[in-house]
Design a protein that fits this description.
The chain has 241 residues and is an alpha+beta fold. It has helices spanning 4-26, 58-64, 108-113, 127-137, 188-205, 217-225, and strands spanning 30-31, 35-37, 49-51, 73-76, 88-99, 118-121, 154-161, 164-174, 177-185, 211-215, 229-239. The longest helix has 23 residues, at 4-26. The radius of gyration is 17 Å and the shape is globular.
Length: 241
C-alpha cells in the first residue's frame, strides 16, 4: 500500500515526466515554477501547458499560453483548475497510473510465444520511426515524432507481427521516473502485450525507477491488468470559445 505522501510525490513526478515528454515532442516550451508551457501552438494531440503542482492557478496557465488562436489545450495534472470562464471545456478525464520498478509479472515474451507481437526497439531515426508513427496513428507518418526523439532517455517500442508493426509504446525518463505513453495495438491482445513489453524495457534500461503514465477507458483497464494502480485524476481542457 502506498501512503499519502508517496502518492503526492508520484503525482508530481508523473506530471514532470509528462511535461518533459511533451516538451521533447514540441521542441520548445519552458518550465515555470508551477507548470510547463509553450507560448506557441504545440503539435496536434499535445498540450500547450502541463501543470506541475496543485498550486498552479488558472492565471498561471493563461499567462503562459496562446489563447488568441484556436486550439489551445491544457493538461490539468491534478484536476484542480477551472478554465471554463476562459472559454475552455473538459476534453477528457483520466487517471495517473503507477507501477513499482521491476519487470512484468507476465513477460511479453510469453505473449509472443502465443502468437502475439515480437518486440524490438526503434533504432533508425527516419524510416523506422516514420513506420512506427504510421502504425500508431493508423495512417501515415507525418513527422510528429521527429528524429531527435530517438536518443538516450527515450525508447520507442515496436511489436511486430509478420514483419509489420502491430503494437507499440514509448518510454521516457524525467522527474525521477519512467513514463509510458502512446500505447497502441491493432487488437486488445496486442495492447495487453504492449504493457508487459514496456515494463520489461523499463527494467532493462532503468532498473530501480518506478513507472508511471496516464490512461482512461479501455487503456486504463489494460494498464491495471498489467499491474499498474490508479493514483489520481487529471483533466485535459480544450479552448472552444
Amino acid at each position: 500500500m502506498i501512503n499519502e505522501p508517496d502518492i503526492s510525490g508520484l503525482l508530481r513526478a508523473a506530471a514532470r515526466n509528462n511535461a518533459e515528454w511533451c516538451g521533447a515532442v514540441s521542441r520548445g516550451g519552458h518550465f515555470r515554477r508551477t507548470l510547463w508551457c509553450s507560448p506557441r501552438r504545440t503539435p496536434p494531440l499535445y498540450p500547450d501547458a502541463v501543470t506541475l503542482t496543485p498550486a498552479a492557478s488558472a492565471a498561471d496557465v493563461l499567462a503562459g499560453v496562446d489563447t488568441a488562436t484556436p486550439g489551445c489545450s491544457v493538461k490539468d495534472s491534478f484536476a484542480s483548475l477551472d478554465l471554463a470562464p476562459a472559454g475552455f471545456e473538459v476534453l477528457f478525464e483520466a487517471q495517473w497510473i503507477h507501477r513499482p520498478a521491476g519487470a512484468a509479472a507476465a513477460p511479453a515474451a510469453a505473449a509472443s510465444a502465443g502468437g502475439g507481437p515480437e518486440w524490438d526497439e526503434v533504432e533508425g531515426p527516419h524510416g523506422q520511426l516514420r513506420a512506427w508513427e504510421a502504425a500508431w496513428s493508423g495512417g501515415e507518418g507525418t513527422g510528429l515524432f521527429h528524429p531527435g526523439l530517438v536518443r538516450e532517455g527515450i525508447v520507442f517500442l515496436a511489436g511486430y507481427v509478420e514483419g509489420r508493426i502491430a503494437a507499440g509504446a514509448v518510454l521516457s525518463t524525467g522527474g525521477g521516473v519512467v513514463g509510458v505513453s502512446n500505447v497502441f495495438g491493432r487488437s486488445g491482445e496486442d495492447i495487453d502485450s504492449a504493457w508487459p513489453a514496456a515494463l520489461d524495457a523499463a527494467a532493462r534500461h532503468w532498473p530501480g525507477l518506478p513507472v508511471v503514465g496516464y490512461e482512461h477507458g479501455d487503456g486504463l483497464d489494460a494498464a491495471v491488468r498489467a499491474g499498474f494502480a490508479p493514483i489520481g485524476p487529471l483533466r485535459v481542457w480544450l479552448q472552444t470559445a
